[in-house]
Amino acid sequence: MATFLVLFDDSSTTWRIEPSALTPLLQDIWADTVIDPTIRSEARGFTWGFQTSRGPAETYLHTDGTCLYIDAALTDAAQIACIFRDCVPGSIEVIFCDQGYNFDLAITPDTTPAELLAKENRTHRG
What we know:
By secondary structure, this protein is of the alpha+beta class. It is about 30% helix and about 30% strand. The protein is built from 3 helices and 7 strands. Strand 6 and strand 7 (about 105) form a beta hairpin.
Protein backbone atom coordinates (compact mmCIF):
# COMPACT_ATOMS: atom_id res chain seq x y z
CA MET A 1 0.00 0.00 0.00
CA ALA A 2 1.26 3.49 -0.85
CA THR A 3 -0.03 7.04 -0.70
CA PHE A 4 -1.30 8.78 -3.81
CA LEU A 5 -3.05 12.07 -4.40
CA VAL A 6 -5.61 13.25 -6.89
CA LEU A 7 -6.09 17.00 -6.94
CA PHE A 8 -6.88 20.17 -8.80
CA ASP A 9 -5.48 23.68 -8.47
CA ASP A 10 -7.65 25.54 -6.00
CA SER A 11 -6.45 28.92 -7.27
CA SER A 12 -7.95 28.31 -10.70
CA THR A 13 -11.53 27.77 -9.52
CA THR A 14 -13.87 28.26 -6.61
CA TRP A 15 -15.49 24.88 -7.29
CA ARG A 16 -15.05 22.27 -4.54
CA ILE A 17 -15.99 18.62 -4.25
CA GLU A 18 -18.32 17.56 -1.44
CA PRO A 19 -18.04 14.23 0.37
CA SER A 20 -21.65 13.50 -0.56
CA ALA A 21 -20.60 13.30 -4.22
CA LEU A 22 -17.93 10.65 -3.60
CA THR A 23 -19.66 8.51 -1.00
CA PRO A 24 -22.25 6.76 -3.20
CA LEU A 25 -19.70 6.17 -5.97
CA LEU A 26 -17.29 4.48 -3.56
CA GLN A 27 -20.13 2.49 -1.96
CA ASP A 28 -21.26 1.28 -5.40
CA ILE A 29 -17.89 -0.46 -5.81
CA TRP A 30 -17.04 -1.26 -2.19
CA ALA A 31 -20.28 -1.90 -0.31
CA ASP A 32 -18.40 -2.23 3.00
CA THR A 33 -17.18 1.39 2.85
CA VAL A 34 -16.86 2.87 6.32
CA ILE A 35 -17.47 6.61 6.45
CA ASP A 36 -15.85 8.86 9.05
CA PRO A 37 -16.80 12.57 8.79
CA THR A 38 -14.51 13.51 11.70
CA ILE A 39 -12.11 16.32 10.78
CA ARG A 40 -8.73 15.16 12.04
CA SER A 41 -6.59 17.78 10.29
CA GLU A 42 -6.75 20.14 7.34
CA ALA A 43 -5.65 17.34 5.03
CA ARG A 44 -7.98 14.79 6.61
CA GLY A 45 -11.42 16.33 6.54
CA PHE A 46 -13.55 13.30 5.62
CA THR A 47 -12.44 9.67 5.47
CA TRP A 48 -13.63 6.54 3.68
CA GLY A 49 -12.19 3.10 4.43
CA PHE A 50 -12.87 -0.18 2.65
CA GLN A 51 -11.41 -3.53 1.74
CA THR A 52 -10.46 -4.18 -1.90
CA SER A 53 -9.29 -7.41 -3.49
CA ARG A 54 -5.74 -6.06 -3.09
CA GLY A 55 -6.09 -5.20 0.60
CA PRO A 56 -7.30 -2.36 2.79
CA ALA A 57 -7.75 1.10 1.33
CA GLU A 58 -8.33 4.45 2.93
CA THR A 59 -8.98 7.74 1.25
CA TYR A 60 -9.52 11.15 2.77
CA LEU A 61 -10.65 14.48 1.40
CA HIS A 62 -8.77 17.67 2.20
CA THR A 63 -11.02 20.13 4.04
CA ASP A 64 -10.83 22.55 1.08
CA GLY A 65 -12.42 19.93 -1.22
CA THR A 66 -9.66 20.05 -3.86
CA CYS A 67 -7.47 17.06 -2.97
CA LEU A 68 -8.09 13.41 -2.19
CA TYR A 69 -5.37 11.42 -0.43
CA ILE A 70 -5.43 7.71 -1.21
CA ASP A 71 -3.69 4.98 0.81
CA ALA A 72 -4.12 1.92 -1.38
CA ALA A 73 -2.49 -0.31 -3.94
CA LEU A 74 -1.73 1.54 -7.18
CA THR A 75 -4.47 -0.26 -9.12
CA ASP A 76 -7.09 0.73 -6.56
CA ALA A 77 -5.70 4.26 -6.32
CA ALA A 78 -6.08 4.67 -10.10
CA GLN A 79 -9.70 3.57 -9.87
CA ILE A 80 -10.39 5.96 -7.00
CA ALA A 81 -8.63 8.79 -8.88
CA CYS A 82 -10.93 8.24 -11.87
CA ILE A 83 -13.96 8.28 -9.56
CA PHE A 84 -12.78 11.64 -8.18
CA ARG A 85 -12.26 12.90 -11.75
CA ASP A 86 -15.86 11.92 -12.57
CA CYS A 87 -17.06 14.26 -9.80
CA VAL A 88 -15.07 17.26 -11.03
CA PRO A 89 -16.27 19.45 -13.92
CA GLY A 90 -14.48 18.64 -17.17
CA SER A 91 -13.09 22.15 -17.48
CA ILE A 92 -10.94 21.68 -14.35
CA GLU A 93 -7.56 19.98 -14.77
CA VAL A 94 -7.14 17.03 -12.40
CA ILE A 95 -3.75 15.50 -11.56
CA PHE A 96 -2.89 12.06 -10.15
CA CYS A 97 0.48 11.65 -8.43
CA ASP A 98 2.24 9.70 -5.74
CA GLN A 99 3.19 11.13 -2.37
CA GLY A 100 6.78 11.75 -3.48
CA TYR A 101 5.62 13.40 -6.70
CA ASN A 102 7.64 10.84 -8.68
CA PHE A 103 4.97 11.06 -11.36
CA ASP A 104 2.12 13.44 -12.10
CA LEU A 105 -0.50 12.51 -14.65
CA ALA A 106 -3.38 14.54 -16.00
CA ILE A 107 -6.71 12.73 -15.80
CA THR A 108 -9.20 13.74 -18.47
CA PRO A 109 -12.93 13.12 -18.03
CA ASP A 110 -12.70 10.03 -20.25
CA THR A 111 -9.55 8.50 -18.70
CA THR A 112 -10.05 4.94 -17.47
CA PRO A 113 -8.13 3.37 -14.58
CA ALA A 114 -6.34 1.07 -17.08
CA GLU A 115 -5.24 4.07 -19.15
CA LEU A 116 -4.02 5.83 -16.03
CA LEU A 117 -1.97 2.78 -15.02
CA ALA A 118 -0.52 2.56 -18.54
CA LYS A 119 0.52 6.24 -18.33
CA GLU A 120 2.14 5.63 -14.96
CA ASN A 121 4.02 2.60 -16.30
CA ARG A 122 5.34 4.63 -19.26
CA THR A 123 6.46 7.37 -16.87
CA HIS A 124 8.57 4.92 -14.86
CA ARG A 125 10.02 3.18 -17.94
CA GLY A 126 10.68 6.32 -19.95
